[in-house]
Write a structure and sequence with these properties.
There is one protein chain. With about 190 residues, this protein is α+β, with helices and mostly antiparallel strands. The radius of gyration is 18 Å and the shape is globular. The chain contains five helices and eleven strands. The N terminus is likely disordered.
């Protein structure tokens, strides 16, 4: 029988050093060469809106340098956002009706712009130098030892806070300050 390879326990105190964390995070996500050569990324899962007690399926397809397709399925209704060459569009699909395709407003485009990035905020910061890591501190999220990371966008100065699991280095929580002044919080699980 195959035995699972045991990972050495991570020393969280060492990971608060930005360079040590960067090396460990890139390695935990496949390594620098693999990530640099990756051209297409596909994700799917289920989103839950906590305040509304609503959940739905999603699908995201990204292709370098700036193509993105993101679909949310609300029962028989699909809402899709897409981008190419920095321009966004939206498609609404209802059963037995023609699709409605429209351009996205400037305000919505500003909120969707980060979704063009091939990777999440940390890998984008390291690989594309799109954001600056302001701080890394030891933290706790719902009883799990983790790292609290604060990032600042080099484009618009907005702030993103992340809670990263200390063992797997996977993002547990992402808190994003939108250009509209609103804040969104996403929690992640089942990697």
């Amino acid at each position: 029988p195959l035995q699972a390879e045991l990972k050495p326990q991570r020393n969280l105190e060492e990971l608060v050093d930005k360079q040590v964390f960067k090396r460990a995070y890139i390695e935990a996500n496949g390594g620098f060469n693999h990530l640099q050569n990756l051209t297409t990324l596909k994700m799917n899962g289920r989103l839950r809106l906590k305040d509304d007690d609503v959940d739905f399926d999603f699908f995201i397809l990204k292709r370098r340098p700036d193509m993105m397709l993101m679909t949310y399925k609300f029962g028989a209704y699909d809402l899709t956002y897409g981008s190419k060459d920095g321009k966004f569009w939206m498609r609404q699909s209802y059963p037995e009706k023609p699709d409605k395709i429209t351009d996205v407003s400037e305000e919505k485009q500003a909120n969707l712009a980060p979704s063009i990035n091939m990777f999440g905020p940390l890998l984008s910061a390291y690989l594309d130098q799109s954001d600056s890591i302001e701080s890394i501190e030891l933290a706790d999220w719902e009883g799990r030892a983790c790292l609290h990371i604060v990032m600042k966008s080099l484009d618009d100065g907005s702030t993103t806070e992340l809670y990263v699991d200390g063992d797997s280095l996977q993002i547990l929580v992402q808190i994003v300050g939108l250009t509209s002044g609103e804040t969104t919080m996403m929690t992640f699980s089942n990697y």
